[in-house]
Model the fold of this input.
Amino acid sequence: MRRPGAWVLVVVAGFVARDAHAGQRLRVASKAFTESVILGEIVTQLERSAGFEVEHRAGLGGSRLVWDALVSGAVDVYPEYTGTLVDEILGAQPDAPRDGASVARALAAHGVGMTAPLGFNNTYALGLRADRAHDLRIDRLSDLRAHAELRFGFSNEFMSRRDGWPGLQRRYGLPQTKVQGLEHELAYRALAGGDIDATDVYTTDPEIRHYALVPLQDDLRFFKRYDAVLLYRLDVDPAALATLRRLEGRVDARTMTALNARAQLDHVAQADVAAGFLRDAFGTVVARAVGGAPRMILARVVEHLALVGASLLVAILFGVPLGILAAKRRRVGQVVLAVVGVVQTLPTLALLVFMIPLFGIGAFPAIVALFLYSLLPIVRNTHAGLVGVSGALRESAEALGLPRGAVLRLVELPLASPLILAGIKSAAVINVGTATLGALIGAGGLGQPIFTGVRLDDVGLILQGAIPASLLALAVQGLFELVERFVVPRGLR
Amino acid sequence: MARFGEAMIDPPISQLVSVSKRFGGVEALAETSLDVATARTTVLLGPSGCGKTTALRLMLGLVRPDGGQVLFRQAPLDQEALRRARTQMGYVVQDGGLFPHLTALDNVRLMARHLRWPEARIRARVAELMALVRLPEDAIARHPSALSGGQRQRVALMRALMLDPELLFLDEPLGALDPLVRADLQDELAAIFRRLGKSVVLVTHDLAEAALFGDVLVLMQDGHVVQRGTLDDLVARPASPFVTRFVRAQRRLDVDVKA
Done:
């Protein structure tokens, strides 16, 4: 056990070191939707062409998460929208700033700066199916008051934001009750399938045209401006900042909508969409990292295995002793089992978000989260395996004169080994699946192509992540059956 | 003759002195004193729940008494003494208590290896014991699940005898065997005990088995020792109506079978 332990430490130390030394290069982040990723990619390639070493952590899971990553220094730049910034991020404070100067001051207090708007206002709108809009003669949001029967499906973020559905409903006095939260991309499917009549859209969404939606006019001016800007850490390299500023005012709404359409409707790779923009706007030709799908998949598999392997090894190193403790000390055992049980009930995404302020973003927080999830099956099975050893066998061992440690090592643990191994196996298989969520906090892995694929409605890309993930789960299962032959004594098989 | 002989032999190897034991609210053993004679076989006899197994586990030091004292060679069996006494006691439980994850051989030599006996010594001792209990050569490499019930008990006896203990405890060692195997093994075990001349404590509920092995029979009921003596004492001079009932119940079965 000593060597795997050392290996884990090396791996863990490696990840920590990677985050600590990353200050020398520029780290760009983007949120988990196509426009943000394209903007992140544009920034990345532009800075790269300016000679900087740039890393793009694409598609992180949510505004708050990326903001926290920026403030904590885990990333240097990311694209944001003024409306989100004022209402959601800075708005949490009682004296929320409203005008430009006080926003800048509030940001500076966090060590963050903001560029001038990039040139488009991607605000919310309600997109109603064109046929419904025509039949019911609806073209303004206030027209909705007369049609309580309409069914809405909103993104979960829109459902809960103050500047989303709750505020909209209050401002316009909307009577609709059939309102459900949906993944944004799935809402379009529901629209096409006739399950809902309207959803929240962004004004630069290519789908507005594709799904024949009518963005309803915001006649009471409820929605705030969502001017795209870049947020950066004030300690960023001045030359890098100058390069960022070249993008100010260069991306108008039509351009952005076209870029979104290229990625989402024409399935052009986001990096290529960004490269195309830079070529057209600045005449910059960016050398793209080459490497086909197989190499990408291999890299993702390696990342994925590192997440699963490191978290599982640490979980074994902690889980088995905890299980032994739980079996030997009943009081302590109840507490241990209750605590690891509670950890298990936390939603994965929530746990990942809790990790950000503690460990930043990237592989390390994902490994910590996966480690916590792996504990329960391992601790519980170790406990059950040891408690299940028959009293007659334990007394026989004691009567032979074996000291306690030897009874544990020579008799109890071998007898419990099938259950312990089964616990480790289920932890491993669950981890292979759960590790895909690591992509949401920049840990990479096979979740990256899956989430990108879901965003871009690109089944091929989804499969590039999903198939290796399934195969990996099967391989892990097979591996453990092999391990069983060596670990579980022959007399117990 | 027997009484005269008893006066000549060594003091008791194991003793319960006014020992009592409760499990939860249940009195498993009322205040009881009991001597185990050196180099003889003492049989604890009685119906289920009479306290015979509890008495045996107290003498083994597997449970601690609530009151009174357990002695091993006239010395209190405290934690310190227990550590030394362990290797001088052997223990066989009803189904053998063999560790299923180890082969018969590994079961037998587990403690010797833990004590770092030289391999040659271990090999010699195992061979000696195999001859003693007449275990077939091919059985020693098998796991317990691949052994017959009788073989399992032979291996369990080998394991208990491995360190050549002076005192051997057997808790219903033949209880789980079918009648034919049981009858064979009873005779063999009796012969082995005679040959070894060790102190033996055997627990059974079977009067015939007790009579076969026992120099001294201790009949128990509801946590009390009812009578201590030979089979003849129990039959001819019962200490209470229970003794007669217990003896008759088992004798009648014998007669029925013979008829």
The interface with chain B takes residues 392-393, 395-402, 406, 410-411, 414-415, 417, 489-492 of chain A (CB under 8 Å). The first helix of chain A runs from residue 2 to 21.
